[in-house]
Amino acid sequence: MSQDPYPGERPSTGGSENQSGGPSDGGAYGSRPYQPTQPYQQPYQPGGYEAGDYPTGAYQSGGYQAGPYRSYQPSYASMEGEKAAQLSLILGIVGLFVAGIILGPLAIWQALKAERLGVPATAGKVLGWITTILYALAVLAGIIFFVILVVGLGATSTYSS
């Protein structure tokens, strides 16, 4: 394959060339910069393209063509639902650490409100239930501990008298 595929575009080097027709230095084609064989024929026109250049039905003039994706404008109900879902999640997380007996049911209530408005709030609802159950168990354990303490103190007072 010793034939040059683009014979008119390569400037001559005037120097020694190897057998394949390329330069012997292995790199540059010569000291002259690349000269295009055909200069650009049409000058720039500020008015744009002529009517025959492109199909007229492909684009609308004066703006973008509406594609398959429409812009989404959330409604008031969906925005309120998203706020309720976020509040439910926040209440569920904070309720795990502080005042869960109050914040857990509030998280469940906000999650149900979000779901009524069409926004899923599963994480907030689950955290609300977990918080509520954990704090209910903690309150129950506290009550049982107090009852055992009172019964134990009552039993020791009967032995000493």
Report what the structure shows:
There is one protein chain. The chain is mostly helical and 161 residues long. Helices cover 47% and strands 0% of the residues. α1 (76-95) packs antiparallel against α2 (100-116), α1 (76-95) runs parallel beside α3 and α2 packs antiparallel against α3 (122-160). The protein is elongated.
Topology:
Blueprint: H1 76-95, H2 100-116, H3 122-160
Features:
elongated, mainly alpha, 47% helix, 0% strand, 161 residues
Percentage of residues in DSSP E strands: under 5%
> What's the helical proportion of residues?
40-55%
Poorly predicted spans: none
N→C terminal distance: 119 Å
For the largest beta-sheet, the strand count, sense and barrel status come to:
none
Average pLDDT reading: 75
Determine the number of helices (DSSP H or I, runs of at least 4 residues): 3
Which series of helices and strands comes N to C? HHH
Question: What would the principal axes of the Cα set say about the shape?
Answer: elongated
The computed structural class is mainly alpha
Total number of strands: 0
Our Rg estimate from Cα atoms comes to 41 Å
